[in-house]
Amino acid sequence: xxxxxxxxxxxxxxxxxxxxxxxxxxxxxxxxxxxxxxxxxxxxxxxxxxxxxxxxxxxxxxxxxxxxxxxxxxxxxxxxxxxxxxxxxxxxxxxxxxxxxxxxxxxxxxxxxxxxxxxxxxxxxxxxxxxxxxxxx
Length: 137
Hints:
By secondary structure, the protein is an alpha+beta fold. It has helices spanning 3-8, 13-23, 47-66, 103-111; strands at residues 29-35, 76-85, 88-95, 117-120, 127-133. It has one domain: Histidine kinase-like ATPase, C-terminal domain (Heat Shock Protein 90, 2-Layer Sandwich). It has 4 helices and 5 strands, in the order H-H-E-H-E-E-H-E-E.
């Protein structure tokens, strides 16, 4: 199944639109997306949580895009992995390391406090950050 097809099966219209349009926008960040087989967010989380998750993903991509640039023309790669862990939705970001002093990046941990989209330290060494969304419509 193609990457676009897997993205479209996520089931959150704003997220599908964001991911597909970003991938063809010609940005200096090449965005790749992997989706666990059979994962449909629209059957696991509410539409409101889907909107919140879309905003979180857009904020994270933007923070990555403007953090740690060595030159303005540099092409960077960012992988977003969608999966499940213990019944929760996990969105994991993998790419080049980000300097810990990057304000935009460090704000990702604090701006999501008190929401259903929780930033947490990545479970694997390859990930930069991951978000957990408790399932339940």
